[in-house]
Amino acid sequence: MNLSIVIPLLNEEASLEELFSRINHVCQSNDLTYEIWFVDDGSTDLSWNIIENLKVQYPQIRAIKFSRNYGKSQALHAAFERANGEVVITMDADLQDFPEEIPELYQMIVEDNYDIVSGWKKKRFDNVMTKNVPSKLFNAAARKVSGVYLHDFNCGLKAYKKQVVKSIDVYGDMHRYIPVLAANAGFRRITEKEVQHQARPYGSSKFGTERFIRGFLDLVTLWFVSRFGGRPMHFFGAVGTLMFIVGFLSALWLGISKLIDVSKGIYGHLITNNPWFYIALTMMIMGTLLFVAGFLGEMIIRTNREHKNYNIDEII
């Protein structure tokens, strides 16, 4: 099978039939064998009914229904586990992405041997102040921190080699950082393609400006995990050891100073009256706690963790 097309959705009943019709036409016109994975992320409208009706007519449709809204990352994770296509393409269900981009994205993976091709919405049709400007700032920060130089991390239209999506673990709100996760996993052939974008024809956006706040927090998490995720002791242990040594040396200095004063016949003050005593004690305690945190982190990453934190109601 050439393609697995993954489409997470939430309350997109108005766009699903048109979206599928365009995808089907594009794939048939280019002789591409394909499957579509619709992932209903807790829709409360008729989205699932429409998918069931389409499934009756078109056997290439696959669908997953979540029991409630878990988020885009979990939706992608569920579909990635089940995708069978040689190339996996993700796109949004709101018709802002153009299915007509699919053949060229497929060719760039198969013929040019890229691991990931990320869409770049160079010309956007979104609100300038609430989406365009924050998006530019976010993307600039993401490029700087991650070292992956893409113009548009948030674009939902992306193409992947099958082995990429099978090798990475998409969780939390990390869907926008899949290229970074892939790069950390050793997939370095990452490029971007300028894609068309249009204003949403139906419904309203499911993402508010708070996604940029979560995005920056996730970026900090990703920076830390990419550098120390496999060896937390290198960070927590090193910082903890340094703090403990500084605290111990400070306490030692206080003790030696007290002994020197006593040898000179000076008995007027207690070590506990010196603020440095409490600073040294605090640093020793914090250093010990950080060291223990690093040790526990090492133990945790050596156990099998399960990131599948969603509940599926039905699969067709």
UniProtKB/TrEMBL annotation:
GO molecular function: undecaprenyl-phosphate 4-deoxy-4-formamido-L-arabinose transferase activity
Enzyme Commission number(s): 2.4.1.-
Enzyme class: transferase
Top-level taxon: Bacteria
TM spans (from-to): 235-256, 276-301
CDD domains: DPM1_like_bac
Classification via Gene3D superfamilies: Spore Coat Polysaccharide Biosynthesis Protein SpsA, Chain A (3.90.550.10)
Presence of keyword Transport: no
Segments forming domain Glycosyltransferase 2-like: 4-167
Cell membrane found in the keyword field: yes
Organism listed in the record: Chryseobacterium fistulae
Pfam hit, one: Glycos_transf_2
Alphabetic keyword roster: Cell membrane, Glycosyltransferase, Lipopolysaccharide biosynthesis, Membrane, Transferase, Transmembrane, Transmembrane helix
GO biological process terms on file: lipopolysaccharide biosynthetic process
Signal peptide: none
Protein name as annotated: Dodecaprenyl-phosphate galacturonate synthase
SUPFAM superfamilies noted in UniProt: Nucleotide-diphospho-sugar transferases
One of the record's GO cellular component terms: plasma membrane
Alphabetical list of InterPro entries matching this protein: Glyco_trans_2-like, Glycosyltransferase_2, Nucleotide-diphossugar_trans
